[in-house]
Structure formats: structure tokens, C-alpha cells
Known about the structure:
The chain is an all-alpha fold. It has one domain (2-83, 100-205). The chain has eight helices and no strands. α3 packs antiparallel against α4 (61-82).
Amino acid sequence: MEGFLKQFLEGIIHTTPLEYLAVFAGIASVWLSKKEHILLYPVGLVNTIIYIWLSLEAHLLGEASVNLYYTIVSIYGWIVWSQKNRQQQHVLRIRHSTRKEWGVQLVFFLTCYIALWLALRALRQSFAPGAIPWADAFASATAYTGMWLMARKKVESWIWWMLTNIASIPLYYTKGFVFTAIYYVVLLFIAWFGWVEWKKKAASEG
Length: 206
């Protein structure tokens, strides 16, 4: 316990201003998504761009690719969420995934996981000896899936986010990003409440 506390305090002390900025932007972005507020995208872009850099520094190549993907899909989501019909109502509404869509999500996740795992194993040999292929690939593949579903306003996006958060807590902690690990604990709780809130919205709008 003493060793854990010492590592925790050292990690907090060595947290850079850039990491603090990324964490606070990320928390704000997830809170805004819980509220279905479109500002989640510009705020989220601050978070993702910083984490591309931080992940590359820590040899978390899967997480770096996730944040690059976040950046691209955030722009797409920003455009889609902004679309309105002639009555000035938003075209996209919160919905549950159909059984067919669940199948597509699982195939998408497994494809991403296998591809990332193979790529990370290969990269670890010559470029990133500090990589943790199976964990990094899982955190990344669930995040890829969650981000796509968030852009489409699917309730199930929060389930994938919770899986991402659970995997990312120990992943970042072992790399020395203690404040980021705490950040994912906070995101896990927000994701839970986001899932509950979006289920209610889907029921009321259905």
C-alpha cells in the first residue's frame, strides 16, 4: 500500500500542465456528451490532439491511433449533430442499436482488436518495446467502436466507453500517467450516468 501511495504521489507531482489540460478538456467533453451538447466536439478536439502527443511519448501506439481517430470522427460527428430539418429540429436523435447493428459493432470491434494487436506486436519488436499489445489493443478497439456510435447517437456507445475506461485505468497508470488514470476513473462514472440518461432519452423520444 505504501509503495502504491508513493507511486501515486510521484505521478501527480510529475504530471505536466499539458496532461492537466487534456484531462480537464476530456472530462468537460464527456460531460457535454452526456448532456447531448454539441460543444463536446470542439472541447474534445483539445483533448484528443494533446493525447496523440502524450501517447506517442509513452509508446502507447494504439491509444495514439485512437486519439487520431477521435479527432477525425469528432469532425464528422460535429457535422452530423449540427444537421437540422426544415423545422430547425436536429435530424439525428438518440436511439438504441438494433440486433443487426449490435452484430456490426461486434465485428467492427473484433476487426479493430485483431488488427491493432498484430500491429502492436510487430511494432514492439523494433519501435516501441514498452508497448502492451493486448491491453492497448483492447482499450483502443473499444474506443474506436464507442466513438463511432457516439457520432451516430447510439445509447450503446456508453457501454463501449465504460469498457474503454476500465481498460485504460491500469494501462495509463503503469506508464506513469497517474493523473490520466484518475481521469479515466472519473470518465467511468460519467459514462455510467451517461448510459442511464441516454436510455431515458431514447425511451422518451421513441
